[in-house]
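Lab notebook, bench 4. The sequencing result for the construct came back, and we need a structural model before the next group meeting so we can plan mutations. Quick request posted to the team channel:

Model the 3D structure of this chain.
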Amino acid sequence: MRSDCPVAQWLGKARQGTPFVVTRNLALCSPLILAALALSPVEARADAIQDIANAELDRSGAPGMALAVVQDGRVVRVEAFGEADIEHGVKVHPDTMFKTGATGMPFTAALMMLLVEDGQIALDNPVSAYLPGTPDKWSGVTIRHLIENTSGLPATPNGDFLAEYTRQEMLAIIAAQDINFAPGTRYRFSYANYVVLGMVIEEVTGVPWSEFARQRLFGPLGMTTARGIDELAIIPNRAKGYEVRDGELRNAEWISAAANSTADGSLYLSALDFAAWGQALSRRLLLRETSWEELDHAIALRGGATCAAAPGWFMEGTGNDLARWQAGVWQGFRTYALNYPGRDISVFVLANGEAANAKDVARRVGRTLDAGLPLVPARPAESKPSAATRHAMQLVDEMIAGKAQRSDYADFADLDFRELTEFLGGMLAALGPVQSFALYEKREDCSETLFRIRTQHADGNAEIRMGLDKQQRITSLDVVPIGTMDEPL
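Done. Here's the predicted structure in C-alpha coordinate form:
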Protein backbone atom coordinates (compact mmCIF):
# COMPACT_ATOMS: atom_id res chain seq x y z
CA MET A 1 0.00 0.00 0.00
CA ARG A 2 1.55 3.31 -1.02
CA SER A 3 2.53 5.54 1.91
CA ASP A 4 1.25 8.66 0.14
CA CYS A 5 -2.19 7.14 -0.31
CA PRO A 6 -4.59 8.76 2.22
CA VAL A 7 -6.07 5.34 3.00
CA ALA A 8 -2.62 4.14 4.05
CA GLN A 9 -2.15 7.31 6.10
CA TRP A 10 -5.53 6.80 7.70
CA LEU A 11 -4.76 3.19 8.56
CA GLY A 12 -1.66 4.28 10.41
CA LYS A 13 -3.68 6.83 12.36
CA ALA A 14 -6.43 4.31 13.04
CA ARG A 15 -3.86 2.09 14.73
CA GLN A 16 -3.18 5.01 17.07
CA GLY A 17 -6.88 5.33 17.85
CA THR A 18 -7.66 8.24 15.49
CA PRO A 19 -11.06 8.13 13.69
CA PHE A 20 -10.90 8.57 9.94
CA VAL A 21 -12.65 10.36 7.14
CA VAL A 22 -10.97 10.22 3.74
CA THR A 23 -12.26 12.75 1.24
CA ARG A 24 -9.33 13.73 -1.00
CA ASN A 25 -6.16 12.64 -2.82
CA LEU A 26 -7.60 9.22 -3.68
CA ALA A 27 -5.78 9.47 -7.02
CA LEU A 28 -2.63 8.56 -5.10
CA CYS A 29 -4.08 5.15 -4.18
CA SER A 30 -3.77 1.96 -6.23
CA PRO A 31 -6.81 0.76 -8.24
CA LEU A 32 -7.17 -2.20 -5.85
CA ILE A 33 -7.41 0.09 -2.83
CA LEU A 34 -9.90 2.30 -4.62
CA ALA A 35 -12.01 -0.73 -5.48
CA ALA A 36 -12.14 -1.76 -1.85
CA LEU A 37 -12.31 1.68 -0.23
CA ALA A 38 -14.20 4.31 -2.22
CA LEU A 39 -14.68 6.43 0.87
CA SER A 40 -16.94 9.43 1.28
CA PRO A 41 -17.38 12.05 4.02
CA VAL A 42 -19.55 11.01 6.93
CA GLU A 43 -18.96 13.72 9.54
CA ALA A 44 -22.71 14.21 10.12
CA ARG A 45 -23.17 10.51 10.85
CA ALA A 46 -19.99 9.88 12.80
CA ASP A 47 -21.15 10.77 16.28
CA ALA A 48 -24.43 8.85 15.97
CA ILE A 49 -22.67 5.71 14.76
CA GLN A 50 -20.02 5.96 17.45
CA ASP A 51 -22.72 6.44 20.09
CA ILE A 52 -24.58 3.32 18.91
CA ALA A 53 -21.46 1.15 18.98
CA ASN A 54 -20.14 2.44 22.29
CA ALA A 55 -23.53 2.11 23.95
CA GLU A 56 -23.71 -1.54 22.92
CA LEU A 57 -20.22 -2.26 24.22
CA ASP A 58 -21.22 -0.68 27.54
CA ARG A 59 -24.48 -2.63 27.68
CA SER A 60 -23.13 -6.04 26.69
CA GLY A 61 -19.67 -5.93 28.22
CA ALA A 62 -18.21 -7.09 24.90
CA PRO A 63 -14.55 -6.02 24.66
CA GLY A 64 -14.53 -4.75 21.08
CA MET A 65 -16.38 -4.14 17.86
CA ALA A 66 -15.77 -3.12 14.26
CA LEU A 67 -18.26 -2.10 11.60
CA ALA A 68 -18.40 -1.30 7.91
CA VAL A 69 -21.10 0.61 6.04
CA VAL A 70 -21.58 0.70 2.28
CA GLN A 71 -24.15 2.91 0.55
CA ASP A 72 -24.72 3.29 -3.20
CA GLY A 73 -21.60 1.27 -3.88
CA ARG A 74 -19.36 3.52 -1.75
CA VAL A 75 -17.75 2.70 1.57
CA VAL A 76 -19.03 5.46 3.84
CA ARG A 77 -17.85 4.16 7.19
CA VAL A 78 -15.28 1.74 8.61
CA GLU A 79 -14.83 2.12 12.35
CA ALA A 80 -13.26 0.20 15.23
CA PHE A 81 -14.01 0.30 18.96
CA GLY A 82 -12.63 -1.27 22.12
CA GLU A 83 -10.15 -4.08 22.56
CA ALA A 84 -9.28 -7.04 20.36
CA ASP A 85 -7.18 -8.70 23.06
CA ILE A 86 -7.86 -7.84 26.69
CA GLU A 87 -4.82 -9.63 28.09
CA HIS A 88 -2.38 -7.62 25.99
CA GLY A 89 -4.39 -4.37 25.73
CA VAL A 90 -4.57 -4.51 21.93
CA LYS A 91 -7.15 -2.21 20.36
CA VAL A 92 -9.57 -3.19 17.60
CA HIS A 93 -8.65 -1.67 14.23
CA PRO A 94 -10.42 -1.71 10.86
CA ASP A 95 -8.14 -4.55 9.73
CA THR A 96 -8.62 -6.60 12.92
CA MET A 97 -9.89 -10.05 11.97
CA PHE A 98 -12.92 -11.63 13.64
CA LYS A 99 -14.34 -15.12 13.26
CA THR A 100 -17.45 -14.85 11.13
CA GLY A 101 -19.62 -17.84 11.99
CA ALA A 102 -22.62 -18.16 9.66
CA THR A 103 -22.10 -14.69 8.16
CA GLY A 104 -19.58 -16.52 5.98
CA MET A 105 -22.28 -18.63 4.30
CA PRO A 106 -23.00 -16.15 1.47
CA PHE A 107 -19.36 -16.52 0.41
CA THR A 108 -19.76 -20.28 0.08
CA ALA A 109 -22.88 -19.76 -2.05
CA ALA A 110 -20.92 -17.34 -4.26
CA LEU A 111 -18.10 -19.88 -4.63
CA MET A 112 -20.60 -22.43 -5.89
CA MET A 113 -21.75 -19.99 -8.55
CA LEU A 114 -18.14 -19.49 -9.65
CA LEU A 115 -17.93 -23.26 -10.16
CA VAL A 116 -21.17 -23.12 -12.12
CA GLU A 117 -19.68 -20.41 -14.33
CA ASP A 118 -16.56 -22.57 -14.77
CA GLY A 119 -18.74 -25.45 -15.96
CA GLN A 120 -17.50 -27.66 -13.12
CA ILE A 121 -20.87 -28.17 -11.45
CA ALA A 122 -24.57 -27.75 -12.25
CA LEU A 123 -26.99 -26.66 -9.54
CA ASP A 124 -29.59 -29.29 -10.31
CA ASN A 125 -27.20 -32.21 -10.49
CA PRO A 126 -27.09 -34.60 -7.50
CA VAL A 127 -24.41 -34.08 -4.89
CA SER A 128 -23.27 -37.64 -5.53
CA ALA A 129 -22.09 -36.57 -9.00
CA TYR A 130 -19.29 -34.57 -7.38
CA LEU A 131 -18.70 -36.07 -3.95
CA PRO A 132 -17.80 -39.74 -3.44
CA GLY A 133 -19.13 -41.37 -0.29
CA THR A 134 -22.63 -39.93 -0.23
CA PRO A 135 -25.31 -42.41 0.91
CA ASP A 136 -28.17 -43.74 -1.21
CA LYS A 137 -30.69 -41.77 0.87
CA TRP A 138 -29.14 -38.59 -0.56
CA SER A 139 -29.94 -39.66 -4.11
CA GLY A 140 -32.50 -36.86 -4.52
CA VAL A 141 -30.31 -34.16 -2.94
CA THR A 142 -28.91 -31.67 -5.45
CA ILE A 143 -26.36 -28.87 -5.14
CA ARG A 144 -29.27 -26.42 -5.27
CA HIS A 145 -30.93 -28.12 -2.29
CA LEU A 146 -27.75 -27.64 -0.26
CA ILE A 147 -27.29 -23.97 -1.19
CA GLU A 148 -30.97 -23.25 -0.51
CA ASN A 149 -31.21 -25.23 2.77
CA THR A 150 -33.97 -27.47 1.38
CA SER A 151 -32.03 -30.75 1.36
CA GLY A 152 -33.40 -32.35 4.52
CA LEU A 153 -29.89 -32.97 5.85
CA PRO A 154 -29.40 -32.62 9.62
CA ALA A 155 -29.07 -29.19 11.17
CA THR A 156 -25.47 -29.78 12.25
CA PRO A 157 -22.78 -32.33 11.40
CA ASN A 158 -23.33 -33.88 14.87
CA GLY A 159 -19.66 -34.65 15.41
CA ASP A 160 -17.39 -33.96 18.37
CA PHE A 161 -16.04 -30.40 18.36
CA LEU A 162 -12.89 -31.61 20.12
CA ALA A 163 -12.11 -34.42 17.68
CA GLU A 164 -10.05 -34.28 14.52
CA TYR A 165 -11.63 -35.80 11.41
CA THR A 166 -10.62 -36.35 7.85
CA ARG A 167 -13.08 -35.07 5.25
CA GLN A 168 -14.34 -38.60 4.60
CA GLU A 169 -14.81 -39.23 8.32
CA MET A 170 -16.85 -36.06 8.72
CA LEU A 171 -18.92 -36.89 5.65
CA ALA A 172 -19.59 -40.35 7.07
CA ILE A 173 -20.86 -38.83 10.33
CA ILE A 174 -23.30 -36.58 8.46
CA ALA A 175 -24.32 -39.38 6.08
CA ALA A 176 -25.17 -41.67 9.00
CA GLN A 177 -27.93 -39.32 10.18
CA ASP A 178 -31.52 -39.65 9.03
CA ILE A 179 -32.98 -37.27 6.46
CA ASN A 180 -35.49 -34.86 8.02
CA PHE A 181 -37.73 -34.45 4.97
CA ALA A 182 -37.82 -35.14 1.26
CA PRO A 183 -35.48 -32.76 -0.61
CA GLY A 184 -37.21 -29.61 -1.82
CA THR A 185 -40.31 -29.98 0.37
CA ARG A 186 -39.24 -27.75 3.27
CA TYR A 187 -36.77 -25.01 4.10
CA ARG A 188 -34.71 -25.45 7.24
CA PHE A 189 -31.45 -23.71 8.07
CA SER A 190 -28.63 -26.25 8.25
CA TYR A 191 -24.92 -25.92 8.93
CA ALA A 192 -24.45 -29.43 7.54
CA ASN A 193 -25.60 -28.26 4.09
CA TYR A 194 -22.73 -25.79 3.86
CA VAL A 195 -20.23 -28.18 5.40
CA VAL A 196 -21.01 -30.58 2.55
CA LEU A 197 -20.76 -27.75 0.00
CA GLY A 198 -17.22 -27.13 1.22
CA MET A 199 -16.43 -30.79 0.60
CA VAL A 200 -17.80 -30.47 -2.93
CA ILE A 201 -15.58 -27.44 -3.57
CA GLU A 202 -12.52 -29.33 -2.38
CA GLU A 203 -13.33 -32.43 -4.42
CA VAL A 204 -13.92 -30.43 -7.60
CA THR A 205 -11.02 -27.98 -7.28
CA GLY A 206 -8.44 -30.09 -5.50
CA VAL A 207 -7.64 -27.35 -2.94
CA PRO A 208 -9.10 -26.47 0.48
CA TRP A 209 -12.33 -24.51 0.08
CA SER A 210 -10.87 -21.51 1.96
CA GLU A 211 -7.91 -21.44 -0.43
CA PHE A 212 -10.30 -21.50 -3.39
CA ALA A 213 -12.12 -18.59 -1.74
CA ARG A 214 -8.85 -16.68 -1.39
CA GLN A 215 -7.89 -17.26 -5.02
CA ARG A 216 -11.22 -16.69 -6.73
CA LEU A 217 -13.29 -14.47 -4.41
CA PHE A 218 -11.38 -12.66 -1.69
CA GLY A 219 -8.34 -11.76 -3.78
CA PRO A 220 -10.22 -10.39 -6.82
CA LEU A 221 -12.56 -8.35 -4.60
CA GLY A 222 -9.76 -6.77 -2.56
CA MET A 223 -10.66 -8.62 0.65
CA THR A 224 -7.00 -8.71 1.52
CA THR A 225 -7.17 -10.03 5.10
CA ALA A 226 -9.96 -12.60 4.63
CA ARG A 227 -8.78 -16.15 5.22
CA GLY A 228 -9.68 -19.52 6.66
CA ILE A 229 -9.28 -20.16 10.39
CA ASP A 230 -5.96 -21.63 11.50
CA GLU A 231 -5.38 -21.44 15.24
CA LEU A 232 -1.72 -22.49 14.94
CA ALA A 233 -0.74 -19.95 12.28
CA ILE A 234 0.86 -16.60 13.10
CA ILE A 235 -1.86 -14.21 11.93
CA PRO A 236 -1.37 -10.46 12.50
CA ASN A 237 -4.33 -8.45 13.80
CA ARG A 238 -6.36 -11.46 14.95
CA ALA A 239 -8.96 -10.73 17.65
CA LYS A 240 -9.69 -13.05 20.54
CA GLY A 241 -13.24 -14.20 21.19
CA TYR A 242 -14.70 -13.94 24.68
CA GLU A 243 -17.50 -15.91 26.29
CA VAL A 244 -19.39 -15.15 29.51
CA ARG A 245 -19.23 -17.77 32.25
CA ASP A 246 -20.59 -17.17 35.75
CA GLY A 247 -20.86 -13.48 34.94
CA GLU A 248 -17.23 -13.11 33.88
CA LEU A 249 -15.51 -12.82 30.53
CA ARG A 250 -13.39 -15.84 29.66
CA ASN A 251 -11.42 -16.91 26.62
CA ALA A 252 -13.44 -19.05 24.22
CA GLU A 253 -13.14 -22.78 24.64
CA TRP A 254 -10.78 -24.62 22.31
CA ILE A 255 -12.16 -26.72 19.47
CA SER A 256 -10.44 -28.93 16.93
CA ALA A 257 -8.93 -27.75 13.65
CA ALA A 258 -11.40 -29.96 11.79
CA ALA A 259 -14.38 -28.24 13.42
CA ASN A 260 -12.87 -24.86 12.51
CA SER A 261 -12.26 -25.59 8.84
CA THR A 262 -15.75 -26.06 7.41
CA ALA A 263 -17.55 -23.95 4.80
CA ASP A 264 -20.43 -22.97 7.08
CA GLY A 265 -18.42 -19.91 8.12
CA SER A 266 -14.98 -20.93 9.40
CA LEU A 267 -13.35 -17.67 8.33
CA TYR A 268 -11.50 -14.65 9.62
CA LEU A 269 -12.70 -11.35 8.15
CA SER A 270 -12.08 -7.72 9.03
CA ALA A 271 -14.38 -4.72 8.68
CA LEU A 272 -12.31 -3.75 5.62
CA ASP A 273 -13.01 -7.15 4.07
CA PHE A 274 -16.73 -6.74 4.65
CA ALA A 275 -16.58 -3.24 3.16
CA ALA A 276 -15.21 -4.71 -0.04
CA TRP A 277 -17.90 -7.41 0.03
CA GLY A 278 -20.56 -4.73 0.47
CA GLN A 279 -19.32 -3.06 -2.69
CA ALA A 280 -19.48 -6.38 -4.52
CA LEU A 281 -23.12 -6.78 -3.45
CA SER A 282 -23.94 -3.25 -4.56
CA ARG A 283 -22.07 -3.25 -7.87
CA ARG A 284 -22.61 -6.97 -8.58
CA LEU A 285 -18.91 -7.52 -9.08
CA LEU A 286 -17.00 -10.62 -10.15
CA LEU A 287 -19.97 -12.92 -10.80
CA ARG A 288 -22.09 -12.93 -13.94
CA GLU A 289 -25.54 -11.37 -13.76
CA THR A 290 -27.16 -14.81 -14.02
CA SER A 291 -25.19 -15.91 -10.96
CA TRP A 292 -26.26 -12.86 -8.96
CA GLU A 293 -29.86 -13.62 -9.92
CA GLU A 294 -29.49 -17.14 -8.54
CA LEU A 295 -28.15 -15.75 -5.28
CA ASP A 296 -30.82 -13.04 -5.01
CA HIS A 297 -34.03 -14.98 -5.58
CA ALA A 298 -36.36 -16.08 -2.79
CA ILE A 299 -36.14 -19.83 -2.24
CA ALA A 300 -39.12 -21.79 -3.58
CA LEU A 301 -40.28 -25.21 -2.43
CA ARG A 302 -41.65 -28.03 -4.48
CA GLY A 303 -45.28 -27.01 -5.05
CA GLY A 304 -44.51 -23.31 -5.41
CA ALA A 305 -44.44 -21.92 -1.85
CA THR A 306 -41.76 -19.27 -1.38
CA CYS A 307 -39.65 -18.73 1.72
CA ALA A 308 -38.18 -15.63 3.36
CA ALA A 309 -34.67 -16.71 2.49
CA ALA A 310 -32.14 -16.64 -0.35
CA PRO A 311 -28.99 -18.75 -0.80
CA GLY A 312 -26.80 -17.94 2.20
CA TRP A 313 -29.24 -15.33 3.60
CA PHE A 314 -32.44 -14.90 5.54
CA MET A 315 -34.87 -12.26 4.26
CA GLU A 316 -37.56 -10.06 5.76
CA GLY A 317 -39.77 -7.27 4.44
CA THR A 318 -40.84 -6.33 0.93
CA GLY A 319 -40.02 -3.71 -1.71
CA ASN A 320 -37.45 -1.13 -0.65
CA ASP A 321 -37.73 -2.44 2.90
CA LEU A 322 -36.61 -5.93 1.89
CA ALA A 323 -33.62 -6.90 4.01
CA ARG A 324 -31.21 -9.79 3.60
CA TRP A 325 -29.34 -10.76 6.73
CA GLN A 326 -27.16 -13.41 8.26
CA ALA A 327 -25.90 -13.75 11.82
CA GLY A 328 -22.85 -15.52 13.17
CA VAL A 329 -22.26 -16.83 16.69
CA TRP A 330 -18.97 -18.68 17.12
CA GLN A 331 -16.34 -19.06 19.86
CA GLY A 332 -17.07 -15.79 21.61
CA PHE A 333 -17.72 -13.80 18.42
CA ARG A 334 -20.97 -12.21 17.24
CA THR A 335 -21.29 -10.96 13.66
CA TYR A 336 -24.17 -9.61 11.62
CA ALA A 337 -24.46 -8.82 7.92
CA LEU A 338 -27.40 -6.67 6.81
CA ASN A 339 -28.17 -5.73 3.21
CA TYR A 340 -31.08 -3.65 1.85
CA PRO A 341 -30.94 -4.27 -1.94
CA GLY A 342 -33.68 -1.76 -2.77
CA ARG A 343 -32.00 1.02 -0.81
CA ASP A 344 -28.46 -0.09 -1.72
CA ILE A 345 -27.26 -0.11 1.88
CA SER A 346 -25.12 -2.73 3.62
CA VAL A 347 -24.02 -2.75 7.25
CA PHE A 348 -21.62 -5.28 8.76
CA VAL A 349 -20.94 -5.57 12.49
CA LEU A 350 -18.29 -7.73 14.15
CA ALA A 351 -17.89 -8.10 17.92
CA ASN A 352 -15.65 -10.30 20.04
CA GLY A 353 -18.04 -10.80 22.95
CA GLU A 354 -20.86 -13.35 22.86
CA ALA A 355 -23.31 -11.01 24.62
CA ALA A 356 -23.09 -8.30 21.95
CA ASN A 357 -26.28 -7.55 20.02
CA ALA A 358 -24.68 -7.12 16.60
CA LYS A 359 -28.09 -7.21 14.92
CA ASP A 360 -29.40 -4.22 16.83
CA VAL A 361 -26.24 -2.24 16.10
CA ALA A 362 -26.47 -3.00 12.37
CA ARG A 363 -30.09 -1.93 12.14
CA ARG A 364 -29.57 1.28 14.09
CA VAL A 365 -26.52 2.19 12.04
CA GLY A 366 -28.52 1.57 8.88
CA ARG A 367 -31.17 3.96 10.15
CA THR A 368 -28.57 6.74 10.45
CA LEU A 369 -28.06 6.44 6.68
CA ASP A 370 -31.73 6.29 5.71
CA ALA A 371 -34.39 7.56 8.09
CA GLY A 372 -37.00 5.68 6.04
CA LEU A 373 -35.73 2.28 7.16
CA PRO A 374 -38.30 0.49 9.32
CA LEU A 375 -37.24 0.57 12.95
CA VAL A 376 -40.40 1.14 14.97
CA PRO A 377 -41.01 -0.32 18.44
CA ALA A 378 -42.77 -3.68 18.24
CA ARG A 379 -46.25 -4.05 19.63
CA PRO A 380 -48.31 -7.20 20.34
CA ALA A 381 -50.53 -8.27 17.44
CA GLU A 382 -53.37 -9.37 19.77
CA SER A 383 -55.11 -7.66 22.66
CA LYS A 384 -55.27 -11.06 24.36
CA PRO A 385 -53.82 -14.45 23.32
CA SER A 386 -55.88 -16.36 20.78
CA ALA A 387 -56.39 -20.11 20.93
CA ALA A 388 -53.65 -20.56 18.33
CA THR A 389 -51.20 -18.49 20.38
CA ARG A 390 -52.04 -20.38 23.56
CA HIS A 391 -51.49 -23.67 21.73
CA ALA A 392 -48.09 -22.47 20.50
CA MET A 393 -47.10 -21.42 24.03
CA GLN A 394 -48.20 -24.78 25.38
CA LEU A 395 -45.73 -26.41 23.02
CA VAL A 396 -43.06 -23.98 24.23
CA ASP A 397 -43.81 -24.72 27.89
CA GLU A 398 -43.48 -28.45 27.24
CA MET A 399 -40.13 -27.88 25.55
CA ILE A 400 -38.87 -25.76 28.49
CA ALA A 401 -39.93 -28.50 30.90
CA GLY A 402 -38.10 -31.13 28.84
CA LYS A 403 -41.36 -32.80 27.88
CA ALA A 404 -41.61 -32.03 24.17
CA GLN A 405 -43.71 -34.63 22.39
CA ARG A 406 -42.34 -36.16 19.19
CA SER A 407 -45.85 -36.25 17.70
CA ASP A 408 -46.10 -32.45 17.92
CA TYR A 409 -43.19 -31.99 15.45
CA ALA A 410 -43.39 -32.63 11.70
CA ASP A 411 -40.50 -33.54 9.39
CA PHE A 412 -37.86 -33.83 12.09
CA ALA A 413 -35.59 -36.84 12.31
CA ASP A 414 -35.19 -38.17 15.83
CA LEU A 415 -31.72 -36.71 16.33
CA ASP A 416 -32.63 -33.22 15.14
CA PHE A 417 -35.84 -33.28 17.19
CA ARG A 418 -33.97 -34.24 20.35
CA GLU A 419 -31.07 -31.79 19.88
CA LEU A 420 -33.35 -28.91 18.87
CA THR A 421 -35.76 -29.22 21.76
CA GLU A 422 -33.05 -29.81 24.36
CA PHE A 423 -30.94 -26.88 23.19
CA LEU A 424 -33.74 -24.34 22.73
CA GLY A 425 -35.60 -25.51 25.82
CA GLY A 426 -32.40 -25.08 27.81
CA MET A 427 -31.91 -21.55 26.44
CA LEU A 428 -35.37 -20.53 27.63
CA ALA A 429 -35.12 -22.34 30.97
CA ALA A 430 -31.89 -20.45 31.73
CA LEU A 431 -33.87 -17.19 31.56
CA GLY A 432 -36.16 -18.31 34.37
CA PRO A 433 -39.94 -18.93 34.42
CA VAL A 434 -42.08 -17.24 31.76
CA GLN A 435 -43.65 -14.15 33.32
CA SER A 436 -45.61 -13.00 30.27
CA PHE A 437 -45.93 -13.71 26.56
CA ALA A 438 -47.58 -12.19 23.51
CA LEU A 439 -47.88 -12.79 19.79
CA TYR A 440 -46.08 -10.11 17.76
CA GLU A 441 -46.50 -11.45 14.24
CA LYS A 442 -48.39 -14.20 12.43
CA ARG A 443 -48.04 -14.76 8.69
CA GLU A 444 -47.96 -17.42 6.02
CA ASP A 445 -44.49 -18.25 4.80
CA CYS A 446 -42.72 -21.24 3.28
CA SER A 447 -45.78 -23.57 3.42
CA GLU A 448 -46.28 -22.94 7.15
CA THR A 449 -47.91 -20.43 9.48
CA LEU A 450 -45.13 -18.51 11.17
CA PHE A 451 -45.64 -17.26 14.75
CA ARG A 452 -43.32 -14.76 16.40
CA ILE A 453 -44.02 -14.89 20.12
CA ARG A 454 -42.08 -12.90 22.67
CA THR A 455 -41.61 -14.13 26.22
CA GLN A 456 -40.60 -12.15 29.27
CA HIS A 457 -38.60 -13.97 31.95
CA ALA A 458 -37.01 -13.06 35.25
CA ASP A 459 -33.54 -12.94 33.70
CA GLY A 460 -34.18 -11.77 30.15
CA ASN A 461 -36.47 -11.80 27.13
CA ALA A 462 -36.70 -13.99 24.06
CA GLU A 463 -38.42 -14.16 20.69
CA ILE A 464 -39.70 -17.59 19.68
CA ARG A 465 -40.12 -18.13 15.96
CA MET A 466 -42.32 -21.13 15.33
CA GLY A 467 -43.76 -22.53 12.12
CA LEU A 468 -46.88 -24.68 12.35
CA ASP A 469 -48.47 -26.81 9.64
CA LYS A 470 -52.20 -27.34 9.09
CA GLN A 471 -52.22 -30.04 11.77
CA GLN A 472 -50.70 -27.54 14.24
CA ARG A 473 -47.41 -29.43 14.37
CA ILE A 474 -44.11 -27.58 14.62
CA THR A 475 -42.26 -27.49 11.32
CA SER A 476 -39.62 -24.90 12.22
CA LEU A 477 -38.43 -23.49 15.52
CA ASP A 478 -35.87 -20.97 16.72
CA VAL A 479 -35.26 -18.90 19.85
CA VAL A 480 -33.53 -15.51 19.68
CA PRO A 481 -32.59 -13.52 22.80
CA ILE A 482 -33.85 -9.92 22.67
CA GLY A 483 -33.07 -6.88 24.79
CA THR A 484 -36.57 -5.49 25.35
CA MET A 485 -40.08 -6.67 24.51
CA ASP A 486 -40.55 -3.71 22.15
CA GLU A 487 -37.31 -4.30 20.23
CA PRO A 488 -38.23 -3.71 16.55
CA LEU A 489 -39.22 -6.81 14.62
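Confidence is low (pLDDT under 50) at residues 1-42.
Will bring this to the meeting.
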